[in-house]
Amino acid sequence: MSSPPRIVSLLPAATEIASALGLVDSLVGVSHECDYPPEVCALPRVTHCDIHGGALPSGRIDRWVSETLARTGTLYTMDEPLLRSLRPDLILTQRLCDVCAVGYDSVSAFAATLPGPPRVVNLEPLTLEEVFGDVRRVAAAAGVPERAEAVVASLRRRVEAVRARAAGSSRRPRCLLLEWVDPPFASGHWNPELVEIAGGEEVLGWSGEPARRVGWDEVIRAEPEVVVLACCGFDLPRTLQEVPLLREALPAMRTRQVYAVDGSDYFSRPGPRVVDSLEILAEILHPELFRGAFPRRAVARIEMAAA
């Protein structure tokens, strides 16, 4: 039997997929953002971002991202000497979003200079089904394809359980899931699909399409009944720092159903915990059906002024 591959993961979702497949011991290096499961935190960090972990306001982060991408084409650097020393057989990366990880072309070009060279696997899901496909893709690349089916089947059962219970309600709340606050970005990719499965109607986000910038006037015209703040890369405490911006932009919003969630752990990561994201939404949108049905997760209700 061949030995397990030495795996380097350049994005948190890939690290979580590897873990779900029982490949934590095969990981030899991870990105600066990989933090789950906890045991990966002790692994060498092979990427760096100048503002990771900083406390800049979201508006300044948005400007820094735009200016840096325009100037350099990337937000991240790879520790190339460290990567060489780790001797990976398999590198997990993505081509989905330049804001999320090291660019795929840069990774591929560097990998070609390494002994082997290592296989580079691109994860680029736009939908929930494609997230499940990435689980199979990583399993196949790591030589354990049989493990993927059990993982996917378990995740799918949870999805269908939410879908079936949510279908029992005649109410479909109009929901706006914001992936950024300053400027506001409506959700995209798999997140509008999660809203639909959880029994809601996403009023501005487009399934299978990138998150898109919207205006606060669009938000008001869309008349959401529920607003969920799932800021990309922000945990719950950091997301709550954005609430004054929301109050300033929407001082008399008719809904008082406004929630902040951990976008970093859940909604921004197209890995196994995308199903946790669905369960969070289900409990927010239909508490009468789902309250207490799932493990407690990081969600905060925000009181807004009524119109």
Outline of this structure?
Helix content is 40%, strand content 15%. The termini are far apart.
Structural class: alpha/beta
Overall spatial form? globular
Can you write the helix and strand succession as a string?
EHEEHEHEHEHHEEHEEHEHHEHHHE
The CATH architecture designation of the largest domain is 3-Layer(aba) Sandwich
The strand count comes to 13
What's the CATH class of the largest domain, please? Alpha Beta
Radius of gyration: 20 Å
Q: Separation of termini? A: 67 Å
Major sheet size, sense and barrel closure: 7 strands, mixed
Q: Tell me the number of structural domains.
A: 2
Number of helices: 13
Helix content: 25-40%
Mean pLDDT across every amino acid position: 90
CATH homologous group name of the largest domain: Nitrogenase molybdenum iron protein domain
β-strand amount = 15-25%
CATH topology of the largest domain: Rossmann fold
Ranges with pLDDT <50 over ≥5 residues? none
Keywords:
2 domains; four-stranded parallel β-sheet; seven-stranded mixed β-sheet; Rossmann fold; alpha/beta; 15% strand; 40% helix; 307 residues
Descriptive report:
With 307 residues, this protein is α/β, with parallel strands linked by helices. The chain folds into two domains: 7-151, Nitrogenase molybdenum iron protein domain (Rossmann fold); 171-302, Nitrogenase molybdenum iron protein domain (Rossmann fold). 40% of the residues lie in helices and 15% in strands. The protein has 13 helices and 13 strands. The protein has helices spanning 12-20, 58-72, 80-86, 104-111, 128-141, 145-166, 191-197, 216-222, 236-240, 243-249, 263-267, 274-285, 287-290, and strands at 7-9, 27-30, 47-49, 76-78, 90-93, 119-122, 174-180, 185-186, 201-202, 212-213, 226-229, 257-261, 299-302. The strands form three sheets. Strands 7, 8, 9, 10, 11, 12 and 13 form a seven-stranded mixed beta sheet that branches. A four-stranded parallel beta sheet has the order 2-1-5-6, sandwiched between helices. Helix 5 (128-141) runs antiparallel to helix 6. The radius of gyration is 20 Å and the shape is globular.
